[in-house]
Amino acid sequence: MGNITIKMLAKQLNLSTAAVSKALRDSHEISPTTKQRVLDLAAILNYIPHPYAGSLREKKSRTIAVVIPEVADSFFSLALNGIEAVAIEKGYHALIYLTHENQEREREILKDLESGRVDGVIMSVAMKTNTFEHIRLLHQAVPLVFFDRVCEEINTAKITTNDYECGYLATKHLIEAGCKKIVLLSVSESLSISSRRMQGYKQALLDHQMDETLCRVIDYNEDLTMNYDLLIELLKSKDRPDGIVATVSKMTTEIYLACMERGLNIPNDIKVVCFSNDSNAPIFNPSLTTITQPAFEMGKLAATILFKALKRNSMVLSDESAVIPSDLLIRASTAGLL
Question: Which stretches make up the HTH lacI-type domain (predicted)?
């Protein structure tokens, strides 16, 4: 008959794949009668959870999945360290899945994880994700905890930082440093973190009575060449900014190179603040003023909450949400002549 899948079990039993997956994991959400039906058929058909060969009596894979956009970003690298520190302590393996900021890739990964190959998932959503049914289906199948880039539509634990306050604080810092034309470089309005940082930016402009016609939001995308060209055009314009708030770390190098190409001095001609956990920030020339996020702590807390949920099936995950504050670290990129 070939490999038996959860879909095949679900079809024969007239149940959803999520219900079958939960029954196989002994979830409290499934009645004892339904669990027994699932286990009986699985035993008859010799169902073996992929990719773990073994007995149906084994209720845990001892594995969690971490779904993130990328690992090159210093934030996610530090967060992974925090997650793995907890997973190792609990005797679990962490499988890392990269979406590469692609919603279709994200959908494929989550569909695969619905099968029960992992006990739980920690996730940060892709940049362009704007529909959430694939995430909802995963949440029905296994415990799910978000960190950093969260999905507000899913009622589960969300570990975030104070993005609104940080957007406000970064903008306020540039205003106090003498900037009149402040640009926010944003990656996606659909991302919760981008939206909140933009809201903080706009509120700071309003509170300090800045001329909003001279301040604007510029949208970035995944095309590095296009982004660099966009920066060059921005810095060539008559109303070029004298202050930039960059909402993600990978923008930093492009900003510095574009300023160098245009012969602009940081910080005397233009001041720069970046949301970044890059360990190279202090040795940039000039050193980079950053909003530094508690990436390790966020990853560690997300994992701690997930393992609590795996131990206690009745736990309400949404009650475990937390906000861990970030820090403004002022360096030379916002100093200089006023």
Answer: 4-58
Rounded CA gap, 250 and 231, in Å?
Answer: 14
Per-residue tokens: 197: 């940082």
Same fold, 63-161+295-323 and 163-292: yes
pLDDT at residue 90 above 70? yes
Q: What is the CATH number of domain 63-161+295-323?
A: 3.40.50.2300
Residue 50, Cβ neighbours under 10 Å: how many? 14
Edge-to-edge, what's the strand order for the sheet holding 322-323?
93-98, 63-68, 120-123, 144-147, 157-160, 322-323
- Peptide bond before 286: cis, by omega within 30 degrees of 0? yes
pLDDT in tens, 8-28: 889 999 999 888 888 887 777
Give yes or no for a contact between 244 and 271, defined as CB atoms under 8 angstroms apart: yes
Instruction: Note the residue count of the chain.
Output: 338
pLDDT tens digits, one per residue of 141-185 = 999 999 999 999 999 999 999 999 999 999 999 999 999 999 999
The CATH code of the domain at 163-292 is: 3.40.50.2300
Residues 118, 119, 125, 126, Cα dihedral to 10°: 0
Distance separating alpha carbons of residues 266 and 272, to the nearest angstrom: 7
Helix (H) or strand (E) holding 54: none
Place of tokens 């995963």: 138
Torsion of CA 14, 19, 20, 26, to 10 degrees: -140
Least confident among 10-24, 267-281, 282-296, 320-334: 10-24
